[in-house]
Amino acid sequence: MLPQAPSQPQFPSLSLHTGFPPTSIGMILPIAMNALDTKEMWFMDFEVTYTPEQEAFRAEVRDWLVNQIPEGLEQPVDPGDLSLEQYEKSRLLGRRLGAKGWLYPTYPTAYGGGGLSVDSVMILEEELDRYGLHLPPYYDSGGRLGGASIFVWGSEEQKQAFLPPIFRGEWRTWQLLSEPNAGSDLAGVQTRAVRDGDEYVLNGQKIYIGSLHGCEMMWTIVVTDPDAPRHENLGWLMVPYETEGVTIRPMELLTAGGEGGASPGLKHTVFFENARVPAFNLVGGENNGWKVATTHLELEHGGGGMVRRNKVVDRFLEYCQTTKFNGVPLSQDPDIREAMAEVFIKNEIVRLFGLRTYWLSHAHKPRSYEGPQTSYTRKITALEVAEEMLRAVGPYAMINDDEWGPLNGLLEHNQRAAVVGLHPGGTTDIQKVIMSRRIGIGRHVREQAGRLR
Amino acid sequence: MDLGLTEDQELLKSTAASFVQQEYGKETLVELEKTPTGITSELLRQAVDLGWFGIIIPEAYGGSGRSFTDTAVLFEELGRGPVFGPHFSSGVLGALTVMQAGTEAQKQAILPRVAAGEQMLAVAVTEPNHGWQPEKIQLQATRQNGNYALNGVKLFVHDAQIASHLVCAVRTGAGNGSSGISLLVIPKDTPGVAVRTLTGWSSQVDEVRFDNVQVPAEALLGDAEGQGWEALDAAAMQAIPILCAYTVGSCQQVYEMSVEYSRTRVQFGQPIGRFQRVQDHIIGIVNNLDAARWTTYEALWKLDANRAAASSIHLAKAVTSEAYLRVCHGGHEVHAGVGVISEYGLTLHTQRSRTLYHLLGDAKLHRRRMTDALGW
Asked: Which residues make Cβ contacts (< 8 Å) with residue B81, sequence separation at least 6?
C-alpha cells in the first residue's frame, strides 16, 4: 500500500494530518513520499497534503453520496433505539457502497472490495462523517473481523464464497465468541462441533452476541477435538443465521456499549442444538481455530488502531461552550473549564495512540504492545471521561429527558456505555496481560501479535 | 475510645438487614429501580411500621428520637440493597429541615405525620441552573393577597413523585444572597404543581413545575422570611452523614459481591481471585470503602457527641462521593460481562453512585467548605 523506497537509508516519511473541523474525521492516514523523491525528512510530520488524484476521488465520493444516502437515515443516540426501518436504510446504503467496492474499500476487487489504498478509506470515512455515518453504516464487527480473518486464513474457495457477500453488504455478520464459562479465558470455549459426513454438528451456547435486527451470517469458535491440548483443539466456523437448531434470545444489559464506536444495540444469547453446518465453512483447518482467532482478536484488542473522532467528547466540549446559565457559558466556570481540559487531554492521548497504532498496522510496521495499549487506554479513559463529565455538568449527565436531557440523551447514554465498554473485546486486565506478553515480561518468549495480512 | 456499635445498634442493624434480605431480592430491586416512586405501598407501610420514617424525629414529635449514628446504621443496611424510596428524602432530610426551620406548632403538625407515613416530604432546592450554593436558588415567591405566588421550576428533586408535600427553597427577599431565601411547605396537590420523573439512568429524580401556584402565607416554614438557607444548610449538614452511611452500605455490598464472585468464577483453571490483578481491584474497593466508612463514622460521632462537626461532615461527603465511583468501577472490573447484565444487580449500585453524587453538594463543593470550616 505504501510504496517502500528501495535503498533509502531511512524510513519513508509518513505524514499525519489533524486539521479537520471537529465534526469531521480528524485523521488521515498518511501517504508516503513518492519513492523516487529524494527529499529527506528529518522530523515526523503530522500534516498531509492531498494529491490531485485524491481530491478528485473525494469529489467523486461527495457527488455520489448526495443521491445515495437513503432519505431520513439517522443513527439514534442510544443504539437500543435503532428501529427496523432505520436499520434497513443503513443496509441499503451498505449495499450501494458495496456495489462500488466502497464498503470494505481496501480489500481486492476480486472479493468485492475496492482495491483502494488506505488514504481513500480516510476520504470515504470523512465524506460519510459529514452525514454522521461511518463505514460500514451499520454494526458489522463480525464482517470486519471475520472478513479480515478469512482473508488471512481462508482457502481461495472460501474467500470466493464468503468475502464478496460481506464486502458487498449482502451479509451483515455477528461474531460468536464468549460463553458462560469462557469469557476472558476464550480458549476455554466448550461449544462442540462434531464432524458428521460433510457437516459439523454444533451444540453449545454463546453470549453477549450481536445487535438489534439479526444478521445473515455468524461465525464462531468451537471445540473440534476435545482430546487435543488447549489452543490446538478449536475450529473456526461460518454459520448461517437461519440454520436450524439455532435459537436466539435477547440479553438485558445496562447498554450494549460497542467496540470502538460501533454501538450495536441489544446483545443476545445464541443456543446451538444439533445445528448442522457444512464442513466447507470451517476456515483455517480443523484444530487450527485458535490461530485464526489470533487475527481477529488482535484487531479487537486494538491492533488495527483507530482514527475516528470521539463524537461524545467533541459534543460535550461544544455543549459546555454553548450552554449558558444566567447568560454565562458553562465553560467560563473555572471548575467546569478544568474538567473540560481534563476530558480533552485524556481524549487526545487516546486519539494519538489510536493514530499511532493505525499507522503501524497500515504501514505494516512491527507491532508489539501497541494494540492492547490502545484498547486499554481507550476503555479506562472512556470511564474517567464519563466521570469527569458527571462532575462538570451535574445530574444533567444522567438524564435523557425530552426537555432537559443534554444533546438528545448523548451524555446519559455515554454514562452507561462507558461502564459497559470496559469489557467487550477483552477486559482492561486482559489488555494488560497481552501488553505484558508483547513487551516480553513474565515469560521467556515475547508473544507475537496476530497476523493482520 | 470504642469504635464498636452498641447492642441497640446491632439489633437495629440485624433487623434492617433481615428485612432488606427478605423483602428486597434482586428481582424486586431491578423492578423498583424503574418505577416513579421506587417503592410499593406495602413496603412503605412495613418501613413505617418498623419506625424507619420517624427514626430521627424526637419522641416529642412522634418519632423514635434515635441518634445520628443509630440512623446511619439503618441507612447503611438500606444502602446494601440498594433500597429505593423516600426513606432519606422524607424521614431524614425532610424531617431535619422541619426540625431546623419550623415553629413549634409546625413541628407538632408535620413531624408526627411524617413519622407515621401519613405525610411524605420531598425537599426541593436545585433548579435548572444546578448547584447547592444559595445564589443558585432563584425561584421567586412573591407576596400576593396574603399568599405566596410561585412560577418556575425545581429540577433534580429526589422522591417528589411519592411526596405529599414539597419543602421548597424559594427567594422571598431581594438580592442574590442566602438571606433572601425562605422555605415553603407546599402540598403537592396544590393547583399548578406538576411533578414529572426525569427519564434516563437516574431513578426517582424529578422535575417540579410551579404554574401560577398560590399558597397561603402560613406555608412559610418558620416565623420569618429570610431564614430558610440557614435552616436548610443546618439540616443538610445533619443529613449528609446519613446519606454517606447509605453509600457505605452500598459500597459494602459491591465489595461482598466482588469477593464472592472472585471466589466462584473460574477462568484459566482457577478462581479469578487468585490473579493479582483481580486482587488489586478488590483491594482498591476495600480501601475506598473503609475510607468512606471511617470518615462517615467520625462525622456521626461528632454530631452525636455535640462536637464541632462541620469539617468532618464536609470531608466525609467529599470522600464518600468519590469513593462510591471508584468502588463501582472496581466492582465492574472484577465482574466483567456479568456485571452489566441488568438482573445481576451490580448496576443498581453503579446507578446510585452517579445519581447520588451531587445530592446535597458534590465533592468539590464540600472540599471547599471543608477548608473554610478548618479556618485555612
From this structure: B20, B24, B29, B250, B253, B348
> How far is A378 from A221, CA to CA, in rounded Å?
26
Q: Measure A410 CA to nearest chain B CA, in Å.
A: 11
Alpha-carbon A234 to chain mean position: 24
B368 touches chain A (CB under 8 A): no
Segments forming the whole domain that contains residue B169? 121-226
Q: Can you read off the three cell numbers belonging to residue A10? A: 531511512
Give the residue from B277, B334, B354 with the most A CB atoms within 10 Å of its CB, the best one to mutate.
B354
Q: Which of the listed residues B85, B115, B145 is the one where a domain comes to its end?
A: B115
Closest CA to A93 of A132, A147, A151, A144: A132
Instruction: Give the rounded percent of residues in chain A with a pLDDT score beyond 90.
Output: 70
- Name the percent of chain A in helix, strand, coil, to the closest 5: 45, 15, 40
Residues near A191 by beta carbon (within 8 Å), at least 6 away in sequence: A179, A202, A203, A204, A205, A206, A220, A221, A222, A223, A272
How many angstroms separate the CA of residue B198 from the nearest CA in chain A? 6
| Axis-axis angle for helices B228-264, B276-304 (nearest 10) | 150
State whether residue A181 sits within 8 Å of chain B by CB: yes
Chain B residues touching residue A328 (CB < 8 angstroms):
none
How many domains in chain B?
A: 3
Query: What are the pLDDT digits (tens) for A162-199?
Result: 999 999 999 999 999 999 999 999 999 999 999 999 99
Q: Please give, rounded to a whole number of angstroms, the shortest distance from the CA of A417 to a CA of chain B.
A: 10
B195, B240: one domain: no
CATH of the domain at B97: 1.10.540.10
The pLDDT score that the predictor gives to residue A437 is 93
Residue B129: its chain A contacts at CB < 8 A?
A: 325-326
What are the cell numbers at A385? 471521561
> Could you tell me if A428 lies within 8 Å of chain B, comparing CB atoms?
yes
Is the confidence at residue A38, as pLDDT, over 80? no
In the block, which residue shows the cell 477548608?
A: B371
A90 CB near a chain B CB, below 8 Å?
no
Query: Would residue B2 count as lying in a domain?
Result: no
Measured distance CA(B98)–CA(A294) in Å, rounded: 65
For residues B101 and B185, membership in a common domain is answered with: no
Residue A200: helix, strand or coil by DSSP? Answer: strand
B69 contacts chain A (CB < 8 A):
no
Residue ending a domain, among B83, B100, B115, is: B115
DSSP A96-151: HHHHTT-SSTTS-GGGTS----HHHHHHHHHHHHTTT--SSSS--HHHHHHHHHHH
* Same domain assignment for residues B367 and B235: yes
Task: Determine, yes or no, domain membership for B22.
Answer: yes
**CATH code where residue B212 lies:** 2.40.110.10
Mapped onto helix, strand or coil, the DSSP state of residue B87 is helix
Residue whose C-alpha cell is 468532618 = B312
Domains and CATH numbers, chain A: 1-137 (1.10.540.10), 172-293 (2.40.110.10), 304-439 (1.20.140.10)
State the pLDDT confidence band at A40, using cuts at 50, 70 and 90: low
What's the confidence (pLDDT) of residue A369? Answer: 94
Assess B264–A contact: CB distance below 8 Å, yes or no: no
Rounded to an integer, what distance in angstroms lies between the CA atom of residue A389 and that of residue A418?
Answer: 11
Q: Which of A419, A433, A437 to mutate to test the interface with B (most CBs of B within 10 A)?
A: A419
pLDDT digit string, tens, across residues B326-372: 999 999 999 999 999 999 999 999 999 999 999 999 999 999 999 99
B-chain residues near A184 (CB < 8 A): 267-268, 272, 336
pLDDT computed for residue A266 by the predictor: 78
Asked if the model's pLDDT at residue B21 lies above 80, the reply is yes
Helix axes A410-420, B346-355, angle to 10 degrees: 140
pTM check: above 0.90: yes
